[in-house]
Design a protein that fits this description.
The protein is mainly α. Helix content is 82%, strand content 0%. The protein has helices at 6-24, 26-45, 52-57, 59-78, 80-85, 87-93, 98-128, 142-163, 169-197, 203-233.
Length: 234
């Protein structure tokens, strides 16, 4: 049988992951519930903050902490079913390019993270920013959210593959993940904060931070693409 093209391999792997998640909804439901629980903890911690302007000033950090913690939960579960059922071993035995496996799994993680963010970000605004006067530039947070989520999905897929067969993989993934994505997180928090505050004269910082985050995505995902064959075969 002729080997399938890389594009057909990618579509087949992506369709498998999407069908599997739509059938069980395990990853989406767990991330959604966890995000709501984090919002509840935020609400208890900020119950005594009466000035909404104060919340806006650090809302970017709160939002990205929510995204990162929720992403860690999803990334920990992204290879769970494959390892439990032996599906990953079957994929590795098939004539499938390892880089295509990475791209398909990273795309799946990206789609699920974006779906959760579509639900969670409006809830964040509803719970904490509903009474605040938001700047007209607030919709610009969509750009750092998108760029940041791409990087989180890409690097998270590589690191979750590295830790999938280790003892204490949940803790180990967090230990590896946070330092690796810190430059991306820092840039995205900076850009999101500028969009929230809308202070004139600071939009150079917004575009510079988005550029740094975009550059991080290109360099780190390209490195993950090249290293994935060695990681998944180890």
């Amino acid at each position: 049988m002729a080997k399938l093209s890389a594009w057909r391999q990618y579509k087949a792997l992506l369709a498998k992951d999407v069908r599997q998640e739509l059938r069980t909804r395990e990853m989406l439901v767990s991330m959604g519930v966890y995000a709501v629980l984090v919002l509840t903890v935020y609400g208890a911690a900020l119950a005594q903050v009466g000035d909404r302007l104060q919340v806006v000033s650090f809302a970017a950090g709160l939002l990205w902490a929510l995204i990162v913690f929720t992403s860690l939960l999803g990334l920990n579960r992204s290879f769970g079913r494959e390892t439990e059922t032996g599906c990953l071993d079957g994929i590795l035995l098939a004539p499938v390019d390892r880089a295509v496996v990475f791209l398909a799994k990273a795309t799946t993680n990206l789609l699920f993270l974006l779906i959760v963010e579509v639900v969670v970000v409006p809830l964040f605004f509803l719970f904490f920013l509903s009474g605040a006067e938001l700047a007209p530039t607030t919709p610009l947070i969509a750009l750092p959210l998108l760029v940041g989520t791409v990087g989180v999905a890409g690097m998270g897929t590589l690191l979750s593959t590295m830790t999938i067969n280790t003892r204490g993989k949940d803790v180990l993934l967090a230990i590896l993940f946070i330092p690796v994505v810190f430059p991306l997180l820092y840039a995205c928090v900076s850009a999101t904060g500028v969009a929230f505050m809308g202070v004139e004269g600071t939009f150079g910082t917004f575009w510079t931070s988005c550029g740094i985050a975009f550059g991080y995505d290109i360099v780190m995902i390209a490195a993950a693409w090249g290293l994935y064959e060695f990681v998944v075969s180890a």
